[in-house]
Amino acid sequence: MEDVLDCNSQEMEKYLRYVSHKDFISKCVRHGIVPEGFKINWNIQIDCSDEILNKCEKIKQDASVKLMELTLVACEEKINKLRSDVCVEDLNNDDHKLFSKRKLAELTQKKNEKFYKLLNCKLDFLSSLVTIDNFQESSIQMDGNCFYRCIAKEIYNNDNKHEIVRQKINNHMKDLKDVYKEYVDRSIT
């Protein structure tokens, strides 16, 4: 297959790598996951209260997410440039289409494996925080959002943030639509 591609095959591969990378970072941002390469390893070097330590951690998390968002912008710029560098004939060529689909599938599989590993680590950590002793009965508004309100109450200590929870669950189901499609009686999208 490689010998069928012309001189722009390297540009095509680079383009596909950026598309895959952008997709991976987008998923991480939507799910609040910061991959190792984006984590800020700075630590305060003096004794201080837990409140200040928590504020420092929050600032590091927020800065990491901002760096990821900026990387998405840079990826989009590079994708647009590479798209113009790859000849239109190349993109319409059947051999290139087949090569592109295979290469993108391969790259996406690798990125998805990395993403799910990060997601599982996050879920393992969250589940370790919950024990039966931490549960308490709460009164929740019965407006059709009670499921999401219960989760928001537990995570954010505020059931009014139910829309955030709903959106994160929707994004998660969209990202894993192949897993959830058999449980949903209409289109996941």
What does this structure look like?
It contains 7 helices and no strands. With 189 residues, the protein is mainly α. The longest helix is centred in the middle third of the chain and has 36 residues. It is flat and about 60 Å long. The relative contact order is 0.12.
Task: Provide the descriptors you would attach to this structure in a database record.
single chain, 189 residues, mainly alpha, disordered N terminus, OTU_dom
**Number of helices, counting only DSSP H or I runs of 4 residues or more:** 7
> How do the SSEs run, as a string of H and E?
HHHHHHH
Rg is 22 Å
Largest sheet: none
Relative helix content:
55-70%
First-residue to last-residue Cα separation: 35 Å
Coarse shape: flat
Low-confidence stretches: 1-7
By secondary-structure content and strand pairing, the structural class works out as mainly alpha
Number of DSSP-assigned strands: 0
Task: Name the beta content range.
Answer: under 5%
Average pLDDT confidence is 77
